[in-house]
Amino acid sequence: MKMRKVKAAVLYEIDKPLVIDEVEVPDLEHGQVLVDIKCSGLCHKQLEEMTGKRGNDPHLPHLLGHEGAGIVEEVGPSVTYVKPGDHVVLGWMKGQGIDSAPPFYSKLGKPVNAGWITTFNEMAVISENRITPIRKDMPFDVAALLGCAVTTGLGVVSRIAKMEPGGKVVVFGIGGIGLNVVQSAALFGAVQVIAVDVNDDKLALAQCIGATHTVNATDGGEIDRVLELTSGEGADYCFEAVGDVRVMERAYQVTGSKGLTVLMGVPKSGDKLCVDPIPLYLGRRLTGCHGGDTVKEEDIPHCVDMYLAGKLKLDELITERIKLEEINASFERMKEKKLVGRSVIEFD
Fold first, then answer.
1. 16, 27, 132, 206: which could form a disulfide with 195 (CB 3.0–4.6 Å)?
2. Looking at residue 265, what DSSP letter applies?
């Protein structure tokens, strides 16, 4: 492969803005795929990396981004799952194909690190098992959301909770994943879907995609309000998508005697959860979540079909479409909790 130079958002220092730089794309190795990135979503996990919430980062400088969509440009040795010209969704979860070595980009002869997937760059070398081919009539902007938020929300409901119709559902935290838990719960026939957040705009969006009730938790009265809405019984399924142990504890408190609490948000390292264990002996359940147990080869094409059939709302989840050069301003809005839905980078 001839040497290519592409624009990318590079993290050089923790707690500093990303630098829009030009990096050299390496030759493809075993199991790697070169993808022309068309769109990429911005996820809160990247903000955590940028601000150092996830701890020391020994891989600086490096590229970022873990949900996107594009077109396969070239495939490396032994790749059989995709071919040049395929439209694909890119996501951090492993799927079918080779788990390749991560690529090494460069800038003026100095290494720029990357993981098995990056999407904040015009072209990216991706491990085959982070790629899922999709129908070519699926728009790239909404397809990008299927790499993380949408499929995680769907998987939490269908694969982890194994939700049955007729249940009462509570969702704490109406961000990218929480919104899709709300939507998925409604699609799976929940009779009550209660969205809990401190942002009225997010709660309004939740109502547009399936919430039957909303609770603003700003005043701290969300436990009493949820119990009131559920006639004192609590939720059959309660999902926490904030990453705050105090919110996790509240989610557990409003879960019914035979209900399930699913923790999706990732707390700060060292934070401890304090819950009453007695209800666990009597039938209440508590579990965590890693990517919703998504089976990408099944779930992503299914979501595409549902969207194109008008059954899955994705356009409503996008708050803004930006250029790569606007990425820092968008992350600043995310940090200040001014983004209601997803921010999507559109590459030229």
1. 206
2. S
Tokens read off for 320: 């803004």
Please give the mean pLDDT across all residues of the chain: 96
Domain count, the chain: 2
CA 8 to chain centre: 21
What is the pTM for the complete model shown? 0.93
**pLDDT of res. 226:** 98
Cα-Cα-Cα-Cα dihedral of 185, 187, 191, 196, to 10°?
A: 40
Instruction: Indicate whether 288 and 276 sit together in one domain.
Output: yes
41 and 154 co-located in one domain: no
304 within some domain: no
41: domain CATH number?
3.90.180.10
Contacts of residue 296, Cβ cutoff 8 Å, sequence gap at least 6: 89, 91, 93, 94, 95, 96, 132, 151
Residues 133, 103 share a domain: yes
- Indicate if 104 and 182 belong to the same structural domain: no
Q: Indicate the residue type of 5.
A: K
Are 207 and 331 in the same domain?
Answer: no
The whole-number pLDDT of residue 2 equals 63
- Domain presence at residue 270: yes
| Domain-located, residue 302 | no
Task: Identify the weakest region by mean pLDDT among 59-73, 86-100, 218-232, 265-279.
Answer: 265-279
Residue 195 pLDDT greater than 80, yes or no: yes
Quickly state the pLDDT bin for 22 (edges 50, 70, 90): very high
Closest CA to 158 of 308, 291, 284: 291
Determine the Cα–Cα distance for residues 344 and 72; give it in Å rounded to an integer.
Answer: 20
Taking the C-alpha atoms of residue 327 and residue 109, their distance in angstroms, rounded to an integer, is 26
β-bridge mates for residue 128, sequence order: none
Considering the chain, what percentage of its residues have pLDDT values greater than 90?
93
Residue 333 CA from chain centroid, whole number: 17
